[in-house]
Write a structure and sequence with these properties.
This protein is of the alpha+beta class. It is built from two helices and eight strands. Strands 1-3-6-5 form a four-stranded antiparallel sheet, with no helix packed on it. Strands 2-8-7-4 form a four-stranded mixed sheet, with no helix packed on it.
């Protein structure tokens, strides 16, 4: 029994030694920069800079009438609707790219067309709380626009009671 244990131990030692040799082998990359790759990189950087300049040239500014709405006390399984007025205070059309809710019980509806400078439109938010114990709920609606601060977060709140 002891001799079997010693034999297995020796085999493991030699196996580990072989493994150490293969681990110390260096890996050399065959990728090198050359004139063609340098030119391609420069062209890509110039194109990206032009796109960014164009994007920045079309940014605008906005103002919401409010960033939060409190429904107060509402019943579970009820439909509740509010709207947030957004005004374009900049010089370029305001594009609302995306509007996402933090929960499936909240459904936002965004304007379909860009909002011209000096004009307003609304983002409608439907809140339909499911059946749950009486509790305070807070949901977030994230609005993505073509403004310097790309994201704006709107908040709705309610105290949801059983029916």
């Amino acid at each position: 029994m002891k001799s079997t244990f010693i034999l297995i131990s020796l085999m493991l030692c030699f196996a580990c030694e072989d493994n150490k040799e293969t681990q110390s082998t260096q890996i050399v990359s065959s990728i090198e920069a050359n004139e063609d790759s340098e030119r391609a990189l420069e062209a890509n950087l110039k194109e990206a800079a032009a796109e960014e300049k164009d994007r920045l040239a079309h940014l605008t500014t906005l103002v919401f009438d409010r960033l939060e709405h409190d429904f107060g006390t509402i019943k579970a399984e009820s439909d509740n609707r509010t709207s947030f007025r957004v005004s374009n205070t900049g010089k370029h059309p305001l594009v609302i790219l995306n509007v996402k809710a933090s929960c499936g019980c909240t459904t936002p509806i965004k304007p379909k067309k860009p909002i011209p400078p000096g004009k307003s439109d609304v983002i409608i938010v439907n809140f339909h709380p499911g059946y749950s114990p009486t509790k305070e709920q807070e949901k977030k609606v994230t609005v993505e626009t073509n403004t310097k601060t790309v994201l704006t977060v709107l908040t709705i709140k309610a105290l949801v009671e059983k029916n």
